[in-house]
What does this fold into?
Amino acid sequence: MTGAQPKTTHARELYIAGKWTPQSGTGSIDVLSASTEEVIGSVPEGTAADVDCAVRAARAAFDGHWGQTDVGERVEWLRKLADALKQRAEQIAVTISQEVGSPIQMSTNIQAGLPVLVTNSYAQLITELKLEQEIGNSLVVREPFGVVGAITPWNYPLHQIMAKVAPALAAGCTVVLKPSEVAPLNALLLAEACDAIGLPAGVLNIVTGYGPAVGEAIASHPMVDMVSFTGSVRAGKRVAALAAETIKKVTLELGGKSAFVVLDDAPLEKAIPAGARNAMLNSGQTCSAWTRMIVPRSLYQKALELAAQAIGSLKVGDPLDPSTRLGPLISATQRERVEGYIAKGKQEGARVVMGGGRPAGFDKGYYVEPTIFADVQSKMTIAQEEIFGPVLSVLPYDTEDDAVRIANDTIYGLAGGVWSGDPDRAMRVARRMRTGQVDVNGGKYNPLAPFGGYKHSGIGRELGMFGLEEYFQIKSIAR
It folds into this structure.
């Protein structure tokens, strides 16, 4: 952080057809600071009429120009957009630290850094994808899907936006975006970036508002060809049901309850702190966080001690303080949800090893103490449902088969980890885990690898080449 200061942003217009456009209604949505609970801005409360205007602008842009652009032109626009986001990185980081509560170091590196990285990656990947190929007497062609509705969450707001917008634009699609109403200010910075580079009108349109009004209007609009949604299972089911009425393609990323399996030959002093810190990333508001640590019963007490030491060393504080490692949750609603799960864990017989309440000294902000539960059984609520807060459940196992069974014993299958002193053994266990991605022995995050899940964690993939391919229709021309 180089000195950018928080500022209040009150937007009165939506970004539609390449310009700031008055909303059809009069409502507005206040945006609160996660750490001070003060109003830090507001955005228009969009309506179905605003969505219709945005969709028509996107359709006109797709049919009129963007859908027929050559790859080189789209690459140039993506690189311009990445540069414009990079120029605003400090402001983006501060804004997201205010909105979401992410510590500023994390906001700088991840919340502001990943959108630039992802956008540039698609400028490169679109040049590597074979858009036409001969199969027998047919020419098989990839063509852009059309108008894409993107509905995004609040926990990694701009990263999740660009994980949809960048591949869609690279493929030749146009986009109508609904950012989360809880953390929408970063999306206004994206609109400013588009405006600054002169992105053609209608290629990206942004309508702020609530899910039942704006999100449902996008999912059901007959001129939207595809919907990409990230959020809860409940909301994802609703989006899919609405989209089915007009036979839209749908991709869904719906969260997880990811397991970190520590095998009996793992170096505990490395493995346990790594797993514990992963569970606390973004104060646990990470869909792929390893919130279930599965350890050998013979090493259970040692694992609990190491986890408590690792988490106890993370400073809870003001997200704009560079030394903070754990900020608040995003809202009072989310804090109440997490506290409800903590109470449920105690009620069902799990034992609190550390945390479990609100940290002392924080009269303002949606803070919850980092919490570790021991004596957790796989069928307990805290081991089955996504909490989305700084809560780690530690489960014992007796055999390797038992560990795999526990790891797979949820409706989710988004992410996971495994650690062993024998890399081949770790790989064997990773292959048995029914989940979309697995880290072995602390494997480094790869933004080019596909991201998505099995089971109720969703449909389709984001990021990398697999994420790009979601935005194409396939046509075969026999001759």
Remarks:
- The chain has 16 helices and 23 strands.
